[in-house]
Each structure stands twice: as structure tokens, then as C-alpha cells.
Design a protein that fits this description.
The complex is a heterodimer of chains A (168) and B (468). Chain A has five helices and seven strands, in the order αβββαβαβαββα. With 168 residues, chain A is α/β, with parallel strands linked by helices. In chain A, β4 (87-93), α3 (98-108) and β5 (114-115) form a beta-alpha-beta unit. In chain B, 65% of the residues lie in helices and 0% in strands. Chain B contains 18 helices and no strands. The chains are: A alpha/beta (168), B mainly alpha (468).
Chain lengths: 168, 468
Amino acid sequence: MLVIAAGLIAVLATRPQATTEQAASPLLGKQAPPVSGITVDGTHYSLPAQPGKYIVVNFFASWCVPCQTEGPNLVAFQFEHQRSGDASVLSVVIQDTVGDARSYQAKIGANWPTMADSHGKIRLDYGVASPPSTFVIAPDGRVVADYLGPATVADLDSVIQRAKASHP
Amino acid sequence: MSSSSRATRRSLVWVVLGVVLVVALLIGSGVFSSKPLTRAQRVEAIASGIKCPSCEDLSVADSNAQTAITVRTAIAAQVAAGRTDQQIDDFLVARYGSAIVLTPPTSGWSLLVWVLPLVGGVVAIGGLTLFMVRRRRRGFAPDDEAAAAVSDGDMSADMLADRQLFLERSLADAEAEHDAGDLSDADYQALLRRDRGRLETIEARMVALEQAAAAPDVLAGAAVSASVGAGSSTGLVAGAGHDPRTARAGSSADDAPPLDPTSADPTSIPGPASTTRPRRSRRQRFLLGGSVVTLSAAIVLVVVLVAVPRLPGQTETGNVTLSQQQKIAQTLAEAAVDEDAGNLSQAAQLYNQILSDNPNQAQATAQLGWLDYQVGTSGNSTTLKNQGRKLVERAVKLDPQDFAGHLYLGTILLLQDNDATGAVAQYQAFLGATNPVPAASVIKQAAPYIRRAYTQAGVALPSQVPAA
């Protein structure tokens, strides 16, 4: 009995903490699900119709604290890549009202397309459980990275640099 | 009615009861139901096997979280579109990963989750059956009892009363079993002879003790050795057909020697050991059952903990068989293959995977840092270069004996800072590293940079480094 108890303690003690687990999306390396529809600003947006660009698809909610940490990073990333034209951001509002989401974006200076996803279709297609979740899609439509939790500028830059180096 | 026909009838009753139970379970499980499920029933059935992505341990059928509602809606749409259950599962697994399905897969290590409870159950039932059979057999083995029997001299009045009660119950059980046809006539008679003899002796012993208590002026030794029955001087172990080897007329109860363990006299009184046997057997039974259940639960728990479904991007390491160090070495090797093949993103992901579980793993830190530095250099990204350099510097601090960090830092100092002296110091540490010792092929690969640093610094080239 003592041996069993000791064995169990050893197994539990040597397991990594749940917070350090990184669950990669099954979409990684596959074609990203298409995103098409009307943005919250009333313009039409279609994900495959962004030739030659890396697209950062970010699922967020205004009330979500990690999303608030991530927001300024996305603004900096968009600012940096608007000049080079090699990447842009698409936001998808989940578990939030469009009004609250737009107010939050206006406050941090987010100026990229944002979709409402009121029926949850985009979230389902991307297998998103909770905000923030971020996917990086290569110009050829493949998902090259995904982040559960707040992504930083360095994270996104690194992914894009590596993807470019792998597939120039 | 004869014993055998009673036994047959009794067996038949058990068989009928078993058949009724199995049929009831089958009917209850819906196996015989020819009525197809409605769409709503199908949606409910599928949803109850799908995990709510944003909840802890809840199915989408049990949760009202927005994500669960979305998944339920998707399941309903798929059912309406005529998809099979498997197609719907596949649809969800392709998006959320295999962890979305609550039922563990029936392949790989997860198969143990299915098999072990069955094995545990079979072992438990088998063990219990074996125990019961052995116990039953022991009940008809006077030799065993006699072998275990010791003197009754140590038995108190309470113990004698317990023993009396036990023997009375034993006789009642034997009678009931005989009436039910479960006990043969011969066995029944043997049992009666044995237990009645014991009972008579116990009762005689109790009378003697009572007499001794009623007459305190009588010496205890005399009371204990007082004859019981028709003027017999047989002592405590005497009875009809007693064995003289066990009789001790005139001796005291307290210093009575044990009975001859070879005695097969069915009327000999079991001493304290056999008197307490029923109690100890019960404890043993609980221990046996408890151990089997605990062991099974522990094994199932361990399997559940270690046999999580492999997520995309995770290496197929087999947590049960590989140590942490082996897993790291395997992942490092896979990353090196990816790096050589130009799959830099995949390689970086593998290094990150190691570091997410082991943030202070020096080799993965050094390799990721060098990868970042190289990509940053080729992509003209200062951010990435600095990030890579910091990681390499960190790797050197984490494990000064690992050669990779010194090699990469030396090269960075030489190429980025043009610091030949600093580079030589790092290359010296690289060449002198012991954990592991750098292979000759690695030294040969790095030789151009090492020669350049040593030449610029005006230091003699070590013999390990091949000349140009």
C-alpha cells in the first residue's frame, strides 16, 4: 500500500503543471478555414482574398484580461507590418457584444477588420475554446502557428520570420 | 427429496436468476430496440460524449456555456445533414483535437483504461472465489484445525463464550447446508462429530471456570484440573475418545503446554489461535479485497494520468516507458532533423515544446537561441537576433558544461561584436566541455570560425582544431 501511495505521489509530483501545457491546434500545418462576411464596420471581408500576406486571426473579448494584455501588442504588430505590407490582423469577437468590443478596440487604437461571429461559426471552424486565441496564417493559406493566451509582437514576428525562412 | 435433487434445484434457481439479470440488462441497454433514434435523441447522445471546450469535465450536453451551445448547434446541423456519428466526431476532432471526445480511444496506451478495470474485476472475483473455496475446504479439514490447535489453558471465559457461539453457529450452518443439499451426509456427520465434541468440551470448561469463580478458596490449579463429566480426570481437553497425549490432569490452566500439533482428534479444542481465526480471516478478507481494489484504482489512475491523447505537434514519446531525459533527447533529435530539412518553424516549435515543460533545459535554450539568431540575421530582424542572443547567453549560464551554448555564443561574439578575445574564451570552454564532450565532426564544422577567432586574438590554435 505504501509503495502504491509513493508511486502515485511520484507520478503526480513529476507531471508538468497544467498551466505549462501547450495544446497545439489540429489546424496547425493545414489550410485555414475560410472566413468571409461583413465586418462590424459594414465592409466585406474574405480571408483567402489577402494575397501575399500573413494574417493574424485573433479571437478576443473586451472583458477578457489576457486579451487586454495582448491588445497593445497587436496594435504594435499591425503598425510595424502595415509599412512592410507583409502581415495584417483580423479580429473575431467571441463571448462579447459588438458594442463593447468596438469600444475596447477604439480605446487601444485597433484599426483592423473585426468580425462579430454571432452564430459561432468561425469559432467552431477554428476550434476556439476561450479568448484570447490567435492563429497565424501563411500567404498560402496554411496555419503556421497558434497561441492560447496573449501573443506578443515578438511571438508573431518570430513565427513569421521562421515561416519566411522555411518557405521563402 | 434427496440431497442431489435439492442441489440441482438450487443450481437451477441460480441459473434462472442469472438469465433474468442478463436479459433485463440487455433490454434496458436498448439492444433489442428496433425503434430508431429521433434526431433530437441522436444530438443528445452525441453531445453527451463531447467535451465542452471551455469547461472542466462537462459534456456539451451538460453545459450552457456559449462554446458548448455552439458545438451543440454544430452537432444538430451535422445530424440534420445526415452525417454519421463517426463523421461528426471526426469533424469536431479536426477542430478541437482528440481531447474533445470524452470517451478514451481504444488504441495505444489509452486501451489500458478499458482493459484494466476488467482485469481488476476478474482478478478480484477470482481472488474472492479462491479465498472462499479454500475457506470452505479448510472447514472440513480437521487435521488443519488440529495442527493449529493449542492449549485451551489460555482461554478466558469470554473467549470460551465466543468459541461456544461460533461452534453453535457452525453447527446451525452445517445443518442448513445439509438440508439444502449443499453438504453430503458423510461430511455432515464428520462435521457434527467434530463440532459437537468441541462444544461439549467448551461447555465443560465453562462449567469448570464457573465453579472456580464460585469457590475462590479452591486453588485455581485444582479448579482448572478438576475432572469434568462422569468422574473423568481428563482435564480441559478431555472428551469422548480424547487423546491422552493432550490430557494434563492436575496441571494449572495458565501453564498448560500446547496441544500436540499432530493430533487429528476432531474433538480437540482449538486454542487461541484457532479461536481467533474467524476474526483474523475477516480481516484478511478485507485486506485482500481492499488491496485488489486499491491496486486496480491506482493502476487506472496512473494510466489516466499518463495516457493523455497525443496532441498535434507533440512527439509520440510514450510517457510510460521513456524517462524525461529520454523524451528531451528524442525531441531534440527530431528538431535537429527538422532544422536540417529547412523546417525551421517545426524545429522551433519542438524546442519550445521542451522549454514549456522544462524552462531551464540548456540544450533546447541554446538551439532555439541559435535558430532565432540565424533567422533574425537572414531576415534582418534585430528583434529576433537579440532574442536569439539572449537565449544563447542564458543557455551558457544554465549549463556551463554544455558545449553548444559556448560554441554559439563564441560565434555570435565573433560575427556580431567582432570580439575575437571573447570568442576565444567561449571556444576554449566549448573545446573543454565535458557534458557532453563535443564530437570531432562538430569541431570540424565550427573550425573556420574557431581558427578565425584564434588568429584575430593572436592565440595558438588548440590541437583539437584541424588546421585549414
